[in-house]
Amino acid sequence: MKAFLKNYRQAPRKVRLVAGLVKGKSVEEAIPMLDFLAKRAGFPIKKLLLSAVANATQVGVAKENLYIKELRVDKGIVMKRMMPAAMGTGHRINKRTSHITLVLAEKTQPIKEVKKAVEVEKKEVKKVVKTKTVKTKKATTSLTPHK
């Protein structure tokens, strides 16, 4: 469940601000964040995210179970341009581009965590059962008449 955006015409430094904001979030949480973000990179990243979700649904994964596992912004090509300057000289202008890689993953609990959770629940149930039996015994002893 991957999607790529190559040679996006914005500096990687600016795109990383948006990428850091939504990295690790669930898809349903990230889409509204990107909608209302006041950064130019918000729209292309949202479009890329929707493309990755479409790729995941083709495999058969539900949208509700997806989260952004990796959102990497790498340096793309740099277009070199010249700006005329004083006394016939020229200053170089670098027009930077970005390569964006988006990886989605499905939310699942590791088997060890599930086993630990089940064991904790069993212990809690045993404690509850023990406390209830103790309370009932005390209640029955307190109801008997004193001699």
Q: How does the SSE layout of this entry go?
A:
Elements: E1 2-8, H1 12-22, H2 27-35, H3 42-59, E2 66-84, E3 90-106, H4 111-143
Antiparallel strand pairs: 1-3, 2-3
Q: What distance lies between the first and last C-alpha atoms, to the nearest angstrom?
A: 77 Å
Arithmetic mean of pLDDT: 87
**What is the count of DSSP helices, taking H or I runs of 4+ residues?**
4
Structural class call reads alpha+beta
Element order: H for helix, E for strand:
EHHHEEH
What is the CATH first-level class name of the largest domain?
Answer: Alpha Beta
Strand content: 25-35%
In spatial order, strands of the major sheet run 1-3-2
User: What oligomeric state do the depicted chains represent?
Assistant: single chain
Second CATH tier, the architecture of the largest domain: Alpha-Beta Complex
Based on DSSP secondary structure assignment, what is the total number of beta strands? 3
**Main pleated sheet:** 3 strands, antiparallel
> What Rg, in angstroms, do the CA atoms define?
29 Å
- And the CATH topology of the largest domain? Ribosomal Protein L22, Chain A
- Helix content, binned percent: 40-55%
Q: Report the uncertain regions.
A: none
- How many domains make up the coordinates? 2
Gross morphology: elongated
CATH homology superfamily name of the largest domain: Ribosomal protein L22/L17
